[in-house]
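Subject: Interface between my chains keeps coming out wrong

I've been trying for a while to get a sensible model of this assembly. When I model each chain on its own everything looks fine, but I need the whole thing in one frame so I can look at the contacts. Pasting all components below, labels as-is. Any help appreciated, I'm running out of ideas.
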Amino acid sequence: MNAEELIMISVDDHVVEPPGMFEAHIPERYRDQAPRVRTTKDGSDVWTFNGKTIPNIGLNAVAGRPKEEYGIEPTAFDEIRPGTYDIHERIKDMSAGGILASMNFPSFPGFSGRVFAATEDKDLALAVVRAYNDWHIDEWAGTYPGRIIPMALPVLWDAELCAEEVRRVAAKGCHSITFTENPATLGYPSFHNEYWDPLWRAVCDEDVVVSIHLGSSGQLSVTAPDAPIDVMITLQPMNVCQAAADLLWSRVIKKFPNIKFALSEGGTGWIPYFLDRLDRTYDMHHLWTGQDFGGKLPSEVFREHFLTCFISDPVGVQLRNLIGIDNIAWECDYPHSDSSWPNAPEELAEVAADVPDDDLNKITYQNAMRWYSFDPFVGGRTKDNGTVAALRAEVAGHDVSIRSYDKGRFQKQVGIEMGKLAEQATA
Amino acid sequence: MNAEELIMISVDDHVVEPPGMFEAHIPERYRDQAPRVRTTKDGSDVWTFNGKTIPNIGLNAVAGRPKEEYGIEPTAFDEIRPGTYDIHERIKDMSAGGILASMNFPSFPGFSGRVFAATEDKDLALAVVRAYNDWHIDEWAGTYPGRIIPMALPVLWDAELCAEEVRRVAAKGCHSITFTENPATLGYPSFHNEYWDPLWRAVCDEDVVVSIHLGSSGQLSVTAPDAPIDVMITLQPMNVCQAAADLLWSRVIKKFPNIKFALSEGGTGWIPYFLDRLDRTYDMHHLWTGQDFGGKLPSEVFREHFLTCFISDPVGVQLRNLIGIDNIAWECDYPHSDSSWPNAPEELAEVAADVPDDDLNKITYQNAMRWYSFDPFVGGRTKDNGTVAALRAEVAGHDVSIRSYDKGRFQKQVGIEMGKLAEQATA
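Reply #2:
Try treating it as a single job with all components included. I did that and got this:
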């Protein structure tokens, strides 16, 4: 299939939360306490909440910049593409990139909402999480039906409340919750603790996928304080295999046969090796470790429960049948630096030149639709006008040129962020 | 090629150090201070050195046991196969397993000799490291020329002394040094520090491979204190990719163009994904991170410097040309629980059924010979009488039956070790 004919749903992109997002959604009594954006003396925009400052509005939102300026963080709204925070511009950017629909992970709250969870006033925290989810589902996703796969933040500090929130958002049509790679490293009970059972019960009941994004454990893959940053960039996606192993061998999989996890931005090329490793571990060790999957192999169990996701992964595409052709979904990672927006369709078509159409359709949109109970074909949208070519034609003239947003703050910020990484590594 | 015709060199096995190993090699003035074996009240054998007890004589030396008894650690010499600590029995076990030659990592000193490095009296520590290496090279490897690839411990606490030791052992024909995955996590300067340059200069001058074994960073892949041990068993080999990334992006590779590293027990199936990830990281980020390989891609650079090693890895064998057919060596891992001894030749022949003979010969012995400057064809040994069939015929009748060594201490020890893992994870 050539690039123009592809139908593409991305299961991992990112929203940069716009100022004012809470206004229409936070209860009146918390209006003054909701997170808000401030501009600092040096011109950076920051979120403030609960007496704390969260400087990182965009989490590496560098789409449309020249590669020389990728670095760590743009720090102000006027340094990033409006498509990162404005839904109307986002839809144009998606169409110009050939992308029919997209699921958007959060930015400033952290992938599992731990910025909100850190609040001592848990009533306030819950109000903020709910307001965030209402904004995301009703406003961000709701403005353009069929274009955004809705996703909700969890109530990270309380499994019962989290289950309630899952049921609440599912009733609004949201079938994806963003969660952490490892609750234990964030200070909560681990995946092996019964504590989370109410949440698992709710996601199974409501057909909600637990979407686990790389980097959501609160731990960076930093080998040494003086390691080049390229080391961390290389290793970070493979970190998610820890979550996969942790969950695969856990009681969760055994007790909740319908539970579904997505390994977002985890890549796919390492999965066949990982599945072999699981099966060999089982073969060599289950007689003394006591693991028991009722006659199934771990690799079979993996395919019943895990969606794997890739941006660009020639090896994974080649080995798709060793992974499981129903277990792979493409992602764009807009607006982060690993994204190939707006040329992702061309990149994928090249990588998948030898892939039969039926396989490729599963990878580019059908698996995403099934796993996330999501239908992009609404309001007159059909497979014919949902292709890369059709979407691009709808926004002909939309500016996707590469340009510099650098206003001098940028290189300084790179230095600050690299210093922070070094501190984290030694802490 | 069928199993009987294979010529097999294993680049990763383990010696369990025998009591009395230091006697012929430690200088007279340190005789009373050399490590020695004691038997505890409950019948366990332990090494003692420098006022400390090292309980783990065998590091999981379970070869020949039923899988029900694999667990963590046998704790006494009479609970493990004599082939683990007696060179004459080892050679018989190797021949019965069809293995022509083998490289043996240490057990009680730790993979990088950190038990010795922890001694305050550095003269004593140096004497012990040298005695260990003399025993390993002259006695363990020297008794059966062509059967053991000699390997030396490093002087972990002093790069200059380490360089001297590398030159000393190289003069004795030893072209492999065992090192750590990450000196930073052991409290030494990282791979990115010029501190180690004397060592790197010595290994390049002397054509010595730096063999990095999984688990040598002092860090276990433990996700949570209450995670099943299967999680750690699954993840531990992939941990070595951190060392690979750390070194690949480091100045070491750029400053020492002849340096060679082996990723021992690291597996191979994940390497093609890893190489893609390296190249993509370079493409997307080098303009701001400043990485520069002089026009080469990181994947090309990787193949110039890294040997990858696998026990059983169908995906790696299938993807051998994406890894680099000159960069793969087979390993047996005798006597640990991931080993298929004595049936490894049959297992490999099945996995490699479709692999051309020229490729398979590189994987089973030719790459090991070239990387480690090692020649097994000495003293009348030829390719004809170095095959699996020929070696097995030489030791016809040698007992390789699976039997229980359990004397009641074993299950208790499993409990203790799992408790220790949990402690480490929470520490």
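Reply #3:
Confirming on my end. Chain A has a mean pLDDT of 92.
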